[in-house]
Amino acid sequence: MSMRRGNAVIAAVIALSGLYGCECETGATSGGEVTGEQGGGGASATKQPTIGVTEDGEQIVFAGRTGARSATKQTPDRLVREPTEPDPEGGDFTLDEAVEGMPIDGQLVAEISTDLGTLFCDLYADRAPRTVANFIGLARGRRAWWDARAGIWRRQPYYRDTTFHRVIPEFVIQGGDYLGDGSGTIGYTIPFEPHETLAHDRAGRLAMATTEGRDTGAAQFYVLDGPAPQLDGTATVFGQCRPEDVVAMIARVPQSGDPDNRPLTPVRIARVLIQRVEGGAASARITTPQLPPGEPAVGRGASPGPSELRTLEGMRRRREEAAEQLRQQRPE
Region Disordered: start and end of each range (predicted)? Predict the structure, then answer.
């Protein structure tokens, strides 16, 4: 590796751990610094039920305090990054809670659907149980998370319509921030889970992004586009994704360059679906996409509308362009 490339990687490592979750001025995309100022009068807080919807369509009701929240000034330029109410989970969320209602047989696999293809990731629940429980709980809408935009705890599929907001060839693709710029926090963190058999030693490794130390993982994750041993001991590795070509295509889309390395055209994560698959990710197959409410279904017995055709055509064209760029960058 050249000295120039080495310096770039070191800078990327520092930025990867530092930007996510920083409570600082972030510009129009993130909405700016959080102050959480309350309106005059100091409204009293009253308990109200808060309703969440899981990936399976199940409604979950939990208690929340809404009076103080309604007194909080909410504008596009003010986010409430620090929760004004306690974590409904009490800071603890188990794997049993995360997989409740799922089949008991088969390897846990995350199907990450993106604009440039689908990743299938084996999840290592036996070696990183708390991290996997958190990831599954967020994906399925069973783990409550703090929405700084609305100032409330939510229980709904977290990763739906997020993006890969940072892409660095031969290093990582990072995503899973609901604010879309890497500054989002979700009201809690999870501890580092080291395991002697899991390292940043190959492309496709799935790991939890951190903020200011290895015990500050939350929701954002990254997938390696190549070995990155300099990250060992800094973040929990909890899975392995395939195919690697999808990771490589995402890592090589046109981007803004240092320090943000943000794709010029967002790479959307349509959803993260959790399954149990006999044979694991190697045997997984793409499932029928679940469209958000109000969007027409596309599949058996249904025809795509004009807007959907434009979207599908755009996705196909982007995949072809990214694949061609990847072929040109790789030696024969």
Answer: 67-92, 283-332
Break the chain into its structural domains and give their ranges.
47-288
List, for residues 193-252, the tens digit of each pLDDT value: 999 999 999 999 999 999 889 999 999 999 999 999 999 999 999 999 999 999 999 999
Structure tokens at 272: 């993260």
Residue 77 per-residue DSSP state? T
CATH of domain 47-288: 2.40.100.10
**Which tokens hold the place of 5?**
């490339």
Helix (H, G, I), strand (E, B) or coil at 95: helix
